[in-house]
Write a structure and sequence with these properties.
The complex is a heterodimer of chains A (209) and B (415). Chain A is mainly alpha-helical and 209 residues long. Helix content of chain A is 31%, strand content 7%. Chain A is built from 7 helices and 5 strands, in the order H-E-H-E-H-H-H-H-E-E-E-H. Chain A starts with a helix and ends in a 9-residue tail after the last helix. With 415 residues, chain B is an alpha+beta fold. Chain B has 2 domains: 217 residues, Sulfite Oxidase, Chain A, domain 2, CATH 3.90.420; 122 residues, Immunoglobulin-like. Helix content of chain B is 13%, strand content 29%. A 5-stranded mixed beta sheet of chain B has the order 4-3-12-7-8. Chain B is globular and about 90 Å long. Classes of the chains: A mainly alpha (209), B alpha+beta (415). The interface between A and B is large, with 84 and 102 residues.
Chain lengths: 209, 415
């Protein structure tokens, strides 16, 4: 309660046209400068908010991809070892083994830009320039047959790209779990053992003693 | 002097007792007086400061986090598992809390770490760790479960150990600043509906968090179990999002941006979305639903022989408190309500027990939790009917341990 009163009181002061630049409440923290904010703001949204100036083509992206990405993701984005594939898998989401890639699963091309810039290449993150990132993303979209070979990505064109699975996501309105008093006696369930982890034998060896 | 006098009187009284008893029990001859004393009862051990930061007994070296090597491409983007079968109570020791990193563990000097709060706020602010620790602190016990805990078990029994089937789980007391206080300091603008959370690791991990949850019970934590966060748990600052999937508890937190819509980051689109049988995927499935598991007996904690055994387990729900846990010894046909051990806290692990006499026959052990909202932990069959076998995330199905006649325990699937 006391905290809320303090907050309301400070809000009143601010509303009265006081020191808007001063920290409110407990007075902790210091104002962040526009330059500090700009230097840390790398997040990109589907509407394009956050995309910087610059551009990159599919052809430029191919060279960068071979240099920075192919060692883990394969020459054509097919993946390598347990590193994920970046293409293929379209139409596989109902299969026994769905393949989730930019072309088959990712809903937004802007997310590819955001992720490549912030996290890739693995072990050398945030080393690509904005132009290079646009180029790599353009190439990845081309690998997935989403854009033509002459596509050039920039802050205007990238948010306009529609990925095949853009409409493939939804939010559940109500929980789908059972609710209420469960069965306690003579419940009609199968108690037949149909699978044993020991038979599959993929558990790491463990020193027991 | 008077004290010594009392001691002497006490000695004389005791000696009288011995002499008095001499008539009843024979006095041992000197050669027969050989009290049993192991070496550690005879010799001095190490003094104080031999270990300025204490470690578990060297005899507990097997109690460690373990990983499944074939699961991931690299150890830097990987996961390991908490040894649930070795733990008692509800608090996980800091060094045994499972790890999940996307680009390894950064080494961040706290004096250089800053938290930036900006976007749709009246006053963009930057906080040092020292400033964050000046806020009135709050300490809370909460479980943290990875959304993918049990993710390898959707299609059937795969990993033979509770450490691997359920060990992406920990529960500690977190201390930090209520996120609401920091947001109030920055002053929310009316259009602000979502937060972007960003880590300072080499993945710059990001998630979007709805504002209502941020204002409800989230915590900017700098300590766990009374000491500063472990590096692998987000030192010097992580977000605590009670009851929600671990991925959104962003570690090494360095930036909070307020916005009017979610950012649709890779971690909330390509990952941490739950693929359904129709090929569509549920998104923003943050809640860790009601769940439980028997931690002893377990594949790693077999039975030595018939007779008494206390069945021990853990239950939890992102909805709130655990209301009840039932245990079945016949694969789910009949159930007995287990004993819950206080404290039973919201969005926290709850310990349950059931006393049991094992006859030496084959047994199918299960536990089933019910939370205070009335949600019941489902069987794998019920879960699969609606969600199929490809969600990866949010598997809260009932676990079956088969107890064999030789006392071994194994992970099985019934159907």
């Amino acid at each position: 309660m006391a905290r809320w009163r303090t907050f309301a009181w400070v809000s009143l002061l601010l509303a009265a046209g006081g020191a808007a630049a001063q920290p409110a409440g407990l007075g902790l923290g210091r104002p962040a400068t526009p330059a500090e904010i700009a230097a840390w703001s790398i997040a990109v949204r589907p509407d394009g908010q956050g995309l910087p100036a610059g551009k990159g083509s599919v052809a430029e992206g191919e060279q960068l991809y071979l240099q920075h990405c192919a060692a883990c993701h394969g020459e054509f984005g097919e993946g390598a070892g347990r590193f994920p594939a970046l293409m293929s898998g379209q139409g596989s989401l109902r299969d026994h083994d769905p393949v989730k890639t930019i072309g088959s699963y990712w809903p937004y091309a802007t997310t590819v830009w955001d992720y490549v810039f912030r996290s890739m290449p693995f072990g050398n993150a945030q080393s690509l320039t904005a132009d290079e990132t646009y180029a790599v993303v353009a190439y990845l979209l081309h690998l997935n047959d989403v854009v033509d070979a002459d596509f050039v990505a920039d802050a205007k064109r990238l948010p306009a790209v529609r990925l095949p699975n853009a409409a493939g996501f939804f939010e559940l309105a109500e929980p789908d779990l059972p609710r209420g008093e469960p069965c306690m006696r003579d419940c009609a369930v199968s108690t037949r053992v149909i699978g044993r982890a020991r038979a599959i034998d993929v558990t790491p060896e463990r020193r027991l003693e | 002097m008077s004290g010594r006098g009392r001691n002497r009187r006490g000695f004389l009284a005791a000696a009288g007792g011995v002499l008095g008893a001499a008539g009843l029990a024979p006095v041992l001859r000197a050669a027969e007086f050989k009290p049993e004393a192991p070496d550690w009862t005879k010799n001095l051990g190490p003094g104080v400061d031999a270990a300025p930061y204490g470690k578990p007994s060297p005899h507990e070296k097997h109690v460690i986090r373990r990983s499944v090597e074939w699961l991931t491409a690299t150890p830097q983007s990987s996961v390991n598992f908490t040894p649930l079968h070795e733990l008692d109570g509800i608090v996980t020791p800091n060094g045994l809390c499972f790890e999940r990193h996307h680009a390894g563990v950064p080494d961040i000097p706290p004096a250089e770490h800053k938290l930036l709060v900006h976007g749709l706020v009246e006053r963009p602010l930057k906080f040092s760790m020292a400033e964050l620790r000046r806020f009135p602190p709050t300490s809370v016990f909460h479980f943290l479960e990875c959304a993918a805990n049990g993710g390898m078990e959707w299609r059937g029994a795969q990993l033979n150990g509770v450490q691997y089937t359920h060990g992406m789980l920990h529960c500690v007391q977190y201390t930090g600043v209520p996120l609401r206080l920091v947001l109030e300091a920055a002053g929310l603008k009316g259009q602000a509906k979502w937060l972007l959370l960003e880590g300072a690791d080499a993945a710059a991990m990001t998630r979007s968090l709805p504002l209502a949850k941020a204002l409800d019970d989230c915590l900017l934590a700098y300590s766990m179990n009374g000491e500063r966060l472990r590096s692998e748990q987000g030192y010097p600052l992580r977000l605590v999002v009670p009851g929600w999937e671990g991925n959104i508890w962003v570690k090494w937190l360095r930036r909070i941006e307020l916005g009017d819509q979610p950012w649709q980051t890779r971690e909330e689109t390509a990952k941490y979305t739950d693929l359904m049988p129709d090929g569509r995927a549920r998104r923003f499935t943050w809640l860790q639903e009601v769940k439980s598991v028997i931690t002893d007996p377990a594949p790693e904690a077999r039975l030595a022989g018939k007779g008494f055994r206390c069945i021990k387990g853990l239950a939890w729900s992102g909805e709130g408190r655990i209301a009840r846990v039932d245990v079945s010894r016949d694969g789910g046909r009949n159930w007995t309500t287990a004993r819950l051990e206080p404290p039973v806290l919201p969005k926290c692990l709850t310990r349950f027990y059931l006393d049991w006499q094992w006859s030496g026959e084959e047994v199918l052990l299960q536990s089933r939790a019910i939370d205070e909202k009335g949600f019941v932990q489902p069987s794998p069959a019920v879960l699969q009917k609606t969600r199929g076998v490809n969600p990866i995330y949010h598997n809260n199905g009932i676990q079956t341990w088969a107890v064999n006649r030789d006392g071994t325990v194994e992970n099985v699937r019934l159907g």
